[in-house]
Amino acid sequence: SLKEEEAVLNLILHSAEKFKEQVDLQENFKEVISFLEEMEVSPLIIAVTNPVIFSTDVDTLSTSVAFLRSKPLLLDMEAVQHLLITKPEIFVNLDSVKNRIQLLCDIVQNPTVLYSLVKTRQFLFDSKNSTVEAVIKWFQDRGIKNKEIAHVMTAKNFFFLEKEELDEKLEYLLSVGVKVEDVIKHPSCLLKPIAHLKERVEFVKAEKPEVLSNRSLDDVMLSKNELFANEVCGSTLENYTEFVQSLNKEFVKAGKKK
User: Fold this and answer.
1) CA triplet 60, 63, 69: central angle to 5 degrees?
2) Of 33, 65, 172, 198, which residue has the fewest beta carbons closer than 10 angstroms?
3) pTM of this prediction exceeds 0.85
4) Residue 250: per-residue pLDDT
């Protein structure tokens, strides 16, 4: 209706001023309103969140929707509507996101995994967030195969890992005699906090040092506490718990001395 169009116009002009954005409404305005209505997204909401959409060519917007709806992503309409409201910039500039989706697709090689990744991690559509590529590159540069990266990528904290912290964990593992090949085979251990890695290594050294060379890194770092203490180290969970508590006290003391 004309009334709604007027309300949208006022909102856009107000929002554009607030964002200091240039919005050219001559050509596209009515077309974009029709497009949003077809998408069942309120033009009023978009006018507030991202007025620039109204000066974007409708073909550009339609191409973006088609990309999100087709392979490899196959997002449902509800997910696309949600993105229009929360990440409207990707509809205006699809290229930034296209390259990232292709990178993720090349690694996971599985449409279902890709779908659940992007559905649960909206920040993957945030093109300003360069840590996504940086963390993947870190793993690739260490010779870790895409198949292994795909496995760790689904962990909640994968995309929040920082290069410095990964370097620190890798250096620590190598310093205690773990071979690089083992880390390449079992990169999941790099998802664990460094304190956890140290607790496991120190306990192994105290109880059964040969474990580091004759058991897999997954057994040492990823097994449940009880299994680790009993099966891997031939000790008890009680011993391990006490050991960790005293180790943490030492760490606190060492920290205070610094």
Assistant:
1) 145
2) 172
3) no
4) 84
